[in-house]
Amino acid sequence: MESVPELKFLVEEKRGAIDVFTAWLPRLAVVFAFVVIGATKFGNDRGEWYRIFELIGLGQWFRYFTGAVQVSGALMMLTRWTRTAGAFLLACTMIGAIIVDIFVAHAVGFAFAPLVLLCIIAATWFAGRE
Question: Does a structural domain hold residue 107?
Answer without folding.
Answer: yes
